[in-house]
Design brief:
Helix content of chain A: 25-40%
Number of strands of chain A: 8
Structural class of chain A: alpha+beta
Oligomer: heterodimer
Shape of chain A: rod-shaped
Structural class of chain B: alpha+beta
Largest sheet of chain A: 5 strands, antiparallel
Shape of chain B: elongated
Strand order of the largest sheet of chain A: 1-2-3-4-5
Radius of gyration of chain B: 29 Å
Strand order of the largest sheet of chain B: 2-1-6-7-8
Radius of gyration of chain A: 29 Å
Order of helices and strands of chain A: HHEEEEEEEE
Number of helices of chain A: 2
Largest sheet of chain B: 5 strands, antiparallel
Number of helices of chain B: 2
Helix content of chain B: 25-40%
């Protein structure tokens, strides 16, 4: 019987093999395409999640320091077309003058303190800060002024993955408000201000 | 036996083939769809995120109003009577007029009939209730509910309950985030 099989000269016609190969190719292409798109989605998702959690970290860090800060002042050093002030300076609980600033060019949030005058970015490298703005009630024009209102800082933050294609314009727009618990003084008396 | 199976020329029918292939395809497509849906779910998560911050904002606004009242040496409930309000980041304690615990500050809009959505300004990206201009309604609705409790013997209202609700709709249905805090009167008139 083996003999019979090996001797069998019956094969496929050209048409049969063409059809078989085309069907295989089509199914293979669709399958691979689906797989590749699933991989890309997975990567985009990863980037979005990482951007979101970084945003919450940045907000948490700023809120924590603002809550115990005083002498709040906003400025617009280089905010481009963004209409809100993109810099907030205040005296933190250690008596240091601290600045949070949006760097429009590098799309980072900088924290500038007496220990680090050039500023250190508090956002991760893979995350782009698309805008950062502050709106302050009870601002302090000078250190011996009195705020007109319990100091209250509203911040807006737009964050997106930095380089992931397709989700670069998927901006998470966050807004929150923090009120300072320090009350109605503009500066610590007797403590040297860093900047 | 081996001979037999070599000789067995019966295969699958075309129907069996089609059914087997369809089952495989449906399974495979199912897995792919699952992964693509996760991108949409990320939107749900980020909405939850924003709503939480907006709810926290509602409470912080009331906190700073109370702080301002205490600084001005007027009752801590002045301008913040019991009720449910819409308020945004601009709501402030009015220092020009004398307020009691009955009339709300101008920034606090009582909700009588239906809520209005927070509006997102396209340039500043601030959420507020400005009706005129270019801002577009967002899908977030915020209500801040104020009530008072009495713990002192003289019946003075010394405990403010602040509840902040943010509601929104998405493809998973109606969602709501609620936060609450107590603010105590730090300058009570003792009996």
């Amino acid at each position: 019987m083996k003999k019979f099989l090996l001797q069998s000269r019956q094969g496929f016609t050209l048409i049969e093999s063409l059809v078989a190969i085309s069907i295989f190719t089509i199914i293979f292409t669709v399958g691979v395409g689906g797989f590749v798109s699933a991989m890309r989605t997975q990567r985009q998702l990863q980037a979005l999640i990482s951007a979101n959690s970084n945003a919450s970290l940045v907000i948490e860090q700023m809120s924590r320091e603002i809550r115990t800060g005083l002498g709040f002042l906003t400025a617009s050093p280089d905010c481009g077309t963004f209409p809100l002030p993109c810099e907030l300076s205040f005296t933190n609980v250690k008596g240091e003058r601290v600045i949070y600033r949006w760097n429009r060019v590098t799309e980072e949030t900088l924290r500038i303190s007496p220990n680090n005058l050039s500023g250190e970015p508090i956002t991760a490298r893979n995350v782009a800060v698309r805008y950062l703005g502050f709106s302050v009630l009870g601002e302090c024009a000078s250190s011996n002024a009195t705020p007109s209102h319990g100091p209250r800082i509203t911040m807006v933050l737009g964050i997106s993955p930095r380089s992931e294609r397709g989700v670069r314009d998927d901006i998470t727009r966050i807004q929150t408000t923090v009120s300072s618990r320090q009350g109605f003084i503009c500066d610590h008396p007797g403590i040297e201000v860093g900047l | 036996m081996a001979e037999n199976s070599y000789r067995n020329r019966s295969g699958q029918t075309i129907m069996e083939m089609v059914v087997a292939l369809s089952v495989l395809t449906v399974g495979f497509l199912g897995i792919l769809t699952l992964i693509n849906t996760s991108l949409g779910l990320n939107r749900v998560v980020s909405d939850n995120y924003r709503a939480t911050y907006l709810a926290a904002e509602g409470i912080e606004i009331i906190k700073s109003l109370v702080a301002t009242n205490e600084e001005k040496n007027i009752p801590f409930c002045a301008g913040i009577p019991e009720g449910t309000y819409e308020l945004d980041y601009r709501a402030r304690a009015d220092t020009t007029t004398e307020y009691d615990c009955v009339t709300p500050y101008p920034g606090l809009t009582p909700i009588f009939m239906s809520d209005t959505p927070l509006r997102l300004h396209p340039d500043t990206n601030l959420y507020d209730y400005v009706q005129a201009g270019v801002s577009e309604p967002s899908n977030f609705y915020r209500r801040v509910k104020i009530s008072y409790q009495t713990t002192l013997l003289n019946g003075e209202r010394d405990k403010m309950v602040v509840e902040s609700f943010v509601a929104w709709k998405d493809k998973t249905g109606d969602n709501e985030i609620s936060l609450a805090t107590y603010i105590f009167n730090s300058k009570p008139r003792l009996p």
